[in-house]
Amino acid sequence: MRTLDGVGSTPRSGVGTVRWYRPDADLTLPDRPDPESVDVDAELERYETARDAVRSALRDARDRTAERVGEEEAAVFEAHEGFLDDPTIIEDVETAIRDGTPAAHAVADRFDEAVAQFEGMEGRMAERADDLRDVRDRLLRALLDADGGGPAATDLAALPAGTVLLAERLTPSDTAALDPDAIAGIATVEGGRTSHAAIIARSLAIPAVVGVGEALESIADGETVLVDGDAGTLVVDPDDERRAAAEGTGPAVISERVATADGRPVEVAANVGGESELDPAAERGADGIGLFRTEFLFIDREAPPTEAEQYETITAALSAFPEDRVVVRTLDIGGDKPVPYLDLSDEPNPFLGRRGVRLSLDEHADLFETQLRALLRAAATEHGDDLAVMFPLVTRVEEVERAVETVESVAADLADEGVDHAVPDLGAMVETPAAAFVADALADRLDFLSVGTNDLAQYVMAADRGNDAVAEYHDPLHPAVLRALDRTTAAVEETDAWVGMCGEMAGDPALTELLVGLGFDELSMSAVTVPDVKRRIREVDADAAASLAIDALACETRGEVLDVLGLDDREG
Amino acid sequence: MERTVTVEPEAGLHARPASKLVQTANRFDADVSIGRAADGDDGLVRADSMLSVSGLNVEHGESVRVVAEGPDAEAALDAVCDLLTSPVEEDADGKETETDGDDTEDAS
């Protein structure tokens, strides 16, 4: 039993068998045999068999991508198939095999030559080199695997149950392809808790430890590893005791709504970033969706989604939670979430630039209106009366007024067209100090506010959430951030609106009492932490929580806040 | 027989239009070749080869020459030129088809 340290990213544990995912691995060929000793017919047949296998894998990947992402994105696999079955390549490879070259070497030689033709060129031509490398590697894996010694192609969507996936890094689309039921855990050399891939893993409730460093390389395929996402450790060859602890099911799900010990109800909802996360959220007992991100509909594709596509997705979310509220955030692009086809201008400081509702009210008003049409139509469907819509990165009251006017004008258009629609509850995200300071004015004009603590902490503390060098400043427990939260909840208390929180902070059971004390009506989080937070709410006494909040707000430093909360120093 | 047409798809002969062109050329018995109009016979490459077609690096708006020889040469030429002159390439299920053959100049 030995232990490696990393950063716990999904607070769950799982045990399984290691499988390394090395999309960039060098596929090393055996030495070239004497041409006389090569069985030409057998090699020709192996080449054909490998092409059949790769073609079928490419078609599967094409169909899956078309279904999950879109036709445009799937087209790359058709180009790959074009290279796989290119008649000039096939002729050359077969000629080389007839001259006594084994299939794998013949393939490597011919594709390397083709790669060299495109390599070093600009733009689309350079992409062809990537395509050719991808097809070459797929073919080589198929050929080498048939030898029994080589690495098999890793189809992320079809890994055997009980797999612990190790990788240098995982892209968001790698992570989204994983089957949460099959994967016991993931661990990566690189990456941090707030990377998009880590957030997706958390949404899928896949135990994850990231940022393990090069030490991860010491674990080999086939070893048994426990991924402990609470402790942020990997245990190789765990003993029975550790295994049993990890394999015990997570905390019991509480499917009913919860209230504090003295009866104050608090909604516990889930943050969701895609349709595949809806069922896991419902299974973990979420009281609805407190943040439905719509960016996944827009990124990784070549054109924006249609109104019909968005309508389908929103109604799917409403059907997954027929009795509960679903809060959809309108498109929040810009900042660190670029979208190629939108031609967003390069800005020296994108986090302080054109992002969120600023784009929706101006250069991307067309996308905003299309999205609102889909939302208003969805609000008139069977489960649509619980739909709520919120606008991201609000700073000014005028923005809310204009957004509400746009909703009204879209409603008027739909009425003129005779299309069924309804106006959902409308809200704003409080992610900026400006929004916190004018929360009273925002709440007067809206049905609810929801605090995004990741951005709020970034803007209050002037610390880029993605910059490790200022990680200690990006601190939701700094008194300044707590006072901004208090400012928001206190302002809402005077109105008919409700106030929720949908940042990472909401999912930390150690902070639940504080957040209840600050007056939040709703907490929305990665689904995986819903059971823990529900359990914690039942233990909390609302009056005691309110005094705790008052004490925390009186603090001058983070250290004092931690003392008040009875916490040791911890990662921010 | 042959024709010279102007390439309409925005992406030029890259990505999806290139795959579609290769798939289309493969559907016919005729030998179809394609090249930049200005490059003459030396510039012609096999239209059924993804490697060759991508290697041309033809962009939107360029003039290309398509040559087809064989039993169904005319049909092959029609299909390939339709693709080259349609701003939105034809989908597998025929969605978003916008065929526009007006840019075709018959040269055979």
From TrEMBL, chain A:
<dbReference type="Pfam" id="PF02896">
    <property type="entry name" value="PEP-utilizers_C"/>
</dbReference>
<feature type="binding site">
    <location>
        <position position="455"/>
    </location>
    <ligand>
        <name>Mg(2+)</name>
    </ligand>
</feature>
<dbReference type="GO" id="GO:0008965">
    <property type="term" value="F:phosphoenolpyruvate-protein phosphotransferase activity"/>
</dbReference>
<dbReference type="InterPro" id="IPR040442">
    <property type="entry name" value="Pyrv_kinase-like_dom_sf"/>
</dbReference>
<dbReference type="GO" id="GO:0046872">
    <property type="term" value="F:metal ion binding"/>
</dbReference>
<dbReference type="InterPro" id="IPR008279">
    <property type="entry name" value="PEP-util_enz_mobile_dom"/>
</dbReference>
<dbReference type="InterPro" id="IPR000121">
    <property type="entry name" value="PEP_util_C"/>
</dbReference>
<dbReference type="InterPro" id="IPR023151">
    <property type="entry name" value="PEP_util_CS"/>
</dbReference>
<dbReference type="GO" id="GO:0009401">
    <property type="term" value="P:phosphoenolpyruvate-dependent sugar phosphotransferase system"/>
</dbReference>
<keyword id="KW-0963">Cytoplasm</keyword>
<keyword id="KW-0762">Sugar transport</keyword>
<dbReference type="Pfam" id="PF05524">
    <property type="entry name" value="PEP-utilisers_N"/>
</dbReference>
<dbReference type="InterPro" id="IPR036637">
    <property type="entry name" value="Phosphohistidine_dom_sf"/>
</dbReference>
<dbReference type="InterPro" id="IPR015813">
    <property type="entry name" value="Pyrv/PenolPyrv_kinase-like_dom"/>
</dbReference>
<feature type="binding site">
    <location>
        <position position="329"/>
    </location>
    <ligand>
        <name>phosphoenolpyruvate</name>
    </ligand>
</feature>
<dbReference type="InterPro" id="IPR024692">
    <property type="entry name" value="PTS_EI"/>
</dbReference>
<keyword id="KW-0598">Phosphotransferase system</keyword>
<keyword id="KW-0808">Transferase</keyword>
<feature type="domain" description="Phosphotransferase system enzyme I N-terminal">
    <location>
        <begin position="6"/>
        <end position="128"/>
    </location>
</feature>
<keyword id="KW-0460">Magnesium</keyword>
<feature type="binding site">
    <location>
        <begin position="454"/>
        <end position="455"/>
    </location>
    <ligand>
        <name>phosphoenolpyruvate</name>
    </ligand>
</feature>
<feature type="binding site">
    <location>
        <position position="431"/>
    </location>
    <ligand>
        <name>Mg(2+)</name>
    </ligand>
</feature>
UniProtKB/TrEMBL annotation, chain B:
<feature type="compositionally biased region" description="Acidic residues">
    <location>
        <begin position="88"/>
        <end position="108"/>
    </location>
</feature>
<dbReference type="Pfam" id="PF00381">
    <property type="entry name" value="PTS-HPr"/>
</dbReference>
<keyword id="KW-0598">Phosphotransferase system</keyword>
<keyword id="KW-0963">Cytoplasm</keyword>
<dbReference type="InterPro" id="IPR050399">
    <property type="entry name" value="HPr"/>
</dbReference>
<dbReference type="InterPro" id="IPR000032">
    <property type="entry name" value="HPr-like"/>
</dbReference>
<dbReference type="InterPro" id="IPR001020">
    <property type="entry name" value="PTS_HPr_His_P_site"/>
</dbReference>
<protein>
    <submittedName>
        <fullName>Phosphocarrier protein</fullName>
    </submittedName>
</protein>
<feature type="region of interest" description="Disordered">
    <location>
        <begin position="85"/>
        <end position="108"/>
    </location>
</feature>
<feature type="domain" description="HPr">
    <location>
        <begin position="1"/>
        <end position="91"/>
    </location>
</feature>
<dbReference type="GO" id="GO:0005737">
    <property type="term" value="C:cytoplasm"/>
</dbReference>
<dbReference type="GO" id="GO:0009401">
    <property type="term" value="P:phosphoenolpyruvate-dependent sugar phosphotransferase system"/>
</dbReference>
<dbReference type="InterPro" id="IPR035895">
    <property type="entry name" value="HPr-like_sf"/>
</dbReference>
